[in-house]
Structure formats: structure tokens, C-alpha cells
């Protein structure tokens, strides 16, 4: 088991602005570790995280999955998440080895043209809780509000991933049982991605799983 | 600087023009292989524009040949330009629409309003 990146630089106040890593975040790390060999085989060079939040997953990858220097892109709509990701990257001393580019934006909108078919690894712990609509104004609410069936943001992320992934690139995403595996499979198929379940876990309030997408 | 070479604006807006208010020089360890790999993914013309936008005192060759991508001196220059200049405060400007994207504390804000999304 790889140790979880150091998050001791955050205080309660920080977690009023960004999502505090929880069971879903740790499930993603566990799933990545389970796929360590497969990921290492791809020799990832360009890595992207949608909705980087605290920067936990990006830093975890930088620390344990990248023997050589890599190029990271971390994006979030929330400016505090952008700054927090940079802090976590520095706190864990991976900033000297790797190059981290942080951009405040909505999923990969401004990156798609230039990074099309170039990204080797994409991570996403999406706002998956079903809400009336994904258009929420409160910053912290955006960290979990996923729109109808929690699927609106996910649908867009899958579509973008299908354009961004390199030929053997891998896309790992956390999902909730309500998101429905068959729906995710269908969304992936529509854009030429295969899907498989990496890891499932039941917490006291929800059933979570992590899926892997790859070009078929 | 590297980030600005990847981002694009509202529609076809690339490369974004850079208006820098505060540029910081950071020191990054030179890693030859890393720079060489990044160069394969760079739009060299856009990088030249960026260097001009910032008014950097760095003279980049007119074009980038394959041979140059093996040349240590050139790679070191690219390392410096791409990785050691950080735009802390300023803005990126879409060449098509004129839309300005602010850069604050080193992070560009590329969020669009609903009405801007095509």
C-alpha cells in the first residue's frame, strides 16, 4: 500500500472551500494502485485530472506512478481547488521532478484542441450526486452536484476523454451506483471507449465504484 | 509559459496573446529528456509569439529543425523559456474574440460565461 499524500497543510477553513477527501477519493487511489502495473506499462507522460480539488489524486500519481518526469494538467472550476492542488503538489515534494500546469476551467474545454489524443492518463472523481441540474452557483455545492442522475458532468467528461486519450491511454473515474454502470457503458460505447469496473466499495451512505475507460 | 502554449480561447483562438503584469523567474532542474519530449508537443510559432509578447530577452531561432531537438544548447534555451518563466499576474487574450482570460497567482482562469459557449 502506498501512503496517502500528505494533506497536513490543510485546515478546516480550507475544507470550507474545497472538497475534503473522503471515501470516494480514497477508493480512486486504491483503484489506481490496483492498476499500478498496467499504468506503469503505458509509461504515462501527460496526465490530466478533471476537478482536481485538494490535488490528492494528481499528487498520488506524481509520487508513485511516474519514475521519470511527467507533464501534469490539473483543472478545476474552483480557484481554491486550483491553489490547493498546487499546495499539495509542493507539500509532497513532487514539484521539482514534475511539471504541473493548473488551469481554472470547466472540464477540458480549452485543452481539447492541443492535447487531442495526447493524454496517457486521465483521473476524475466527479460530482456524482444527482441534483436538479448541474448549474449550481455555490462553489462548494459544485463539488458534488452532478445534475440529473448525476450524469450530466460525467457524460461530458467521457466525451472529452474520448478525444483526449492517447491510443493506449487510460481514464479512471469514480461513479455511484445511481449513475448506473450500463448507462456509463453506453456513453463510452458511443464515443469508442470500452469500460470495466476496477473496484467496488460500499460505504455507510452509498455504493461506489471506480471504472476504467480505454479506446476499443 | 508552457501552459500558454496548450490553451486556446473561445472558438479558434490560438495562440492566445499574453499580457503579463508580473513574470517570475523560477529555477527548475534541467532534464534533457523531459524537454526533448515536451518539444515534440509544442507549437514553435506560438512559443515565439509568447516570447515576443513577454518582451523576453531571449533570441529563439527562426525555425526548429529535428537536429536542433537533439542539441543541448537549444534544449537548455527551451527549458528556460518553457519552464522557468512563470506568469504570475496578467491575462491571456483570445486573438479571435478579444476575450480576456485573467491569470491570477500563476493560474489562468479560462471559465466562460454560459452566453459565450458555442
Automatic annotation (TrEMBL), chain A:
<comment type="similarity">
    <text>Belongs to the eukaryotic/archaeal PrmC-related family.</text>
</comment>
<dbReference type="InterPro" id="IPR004557">
    <property type="entry name" value="PrmC-related"/>
</dbReference>
<keyword id="KW-0539">Nucleus</keyword>
<keyword id="KW-0949">S-adenosyl-L-methionine</keyword>
<dbReference type="InterPro" id="IPR052190">
    <property type="entry name" value="Euk-Arch_PrmC-MTase"/>
</dbReference>
<keyword id="KW-0808">Transferase</keyword>
<dbReference type="GO" id="GO:0036009">
    <property type="term" value="F:protein-glutamine N-methyltransferase activity"/>
</dbReference>
<protein>
    <recommendedName>
        <fullName>Methyltransferase HEMK2</fullName>
    </recommendedName>
</protein>
<dbReference type="GO" id="GO:0003676">
    <property type="term" value="F:nucleic acid binding"/>
</dbReference>
<comment type="subunit">
    <text>Heterodimer; heterodimerization with TRMT112 is required for S-adenosyl-L-methionine-binding.</text>
</comment>
<dbReference type="GO" id="GO:0035657">
    <property type="term" value="C:eRF1 methyltransferase complex"/>
</dbReference>
<dbReference type="InterPro" id="IPR007848">
    <property type="entry name" value="Small_mtfrase_dom"/>
</dbReference>
<dbReference type="InterPro" id="IPR002052">
    <property type="entry name" value="DNA_methylase_N6_adenine_CS"/>
</dbReference>
<dbReference type="GO" id="GO:0005634">
    <property type="term" value="C:nucleus"/>
</dbReference>
<comment type="function">
    <text>Methyltransferase that can methylate proteins and, to a lower extent, arsenic. Catalytic subunit of a heterodimer with TRMT112, which monomethylates 'Lys-12' of histone H4 (H4K12me1), a modification present at the promoters of numerous genes encoding cell cycle regulators. Catalytic subunit of a heterodimer with TRMT112, which catalyzes N5-methylation of Glu residue of proteins with a Gly-Gln-Xaa-Xaa-Xaa-Arg motif. Methylates ETF1 on 'Gln-185'; ETF1 needs to be complexed to ERF3 in its GTP-bound form to be efficiently methylated.</text>
</comment>
<dbReference type="InterPro" id="IPR029063">
    <property type="entry name" value="SAM-dependent_MTases_sf"/>
</dbReference>
<dbReference type="Pfam" id="PF05175">
    <property type="entry name" value="MTS"/>
</dbReference>
<feature type="domain" description="Methyltransferase small">
    <location>
        <begin position="22"/>
        <end position="184"/>
    </location>
</feature>
<dbReference type="GO" id="GO:0032259">
    <property type="term" value="P:methylation"/>
</dbReference>
<keyword id="KW-0489">Methyltransferase</keyword>
From TrEMBL, chain B:
<dbReference type="Pfam" id="PF03966">
    <property type="entry name" value="Trm112p"/>
</dbReference>
<comment type="similarity">
    <text>Belongs to the TRM112 family.</text>
</comment>
<dbReference type="InterPro" id="IPR039127">
    <property type="entry name" value="Trm112"/>
</dbReference>
<protein>
    <recommendedName>
        <fullName>Multifunctional methyltransferase subunit TRM112-like protein</fullName>
    </recommendedName>
</protein>
<dbReference type="GO" id="GO:0070476">
    <property type="term" value="P:rRNA (guanine-N7)-methylation"/>
</dbReference>
<dbReference type="InterPro" id="IPR005651">
    <property type="entry name" value="Trm112-like"/>
</dbReference>
<dbReference type="GO" id="GO:0030488">
    <property type="term" value="P:tRNA methylation"/>
</dbReference>
<dbReference type="GO" id="GO:0046982">
    <property type="term" value="F:protein heterodimerization activity"/>
</dbReference>
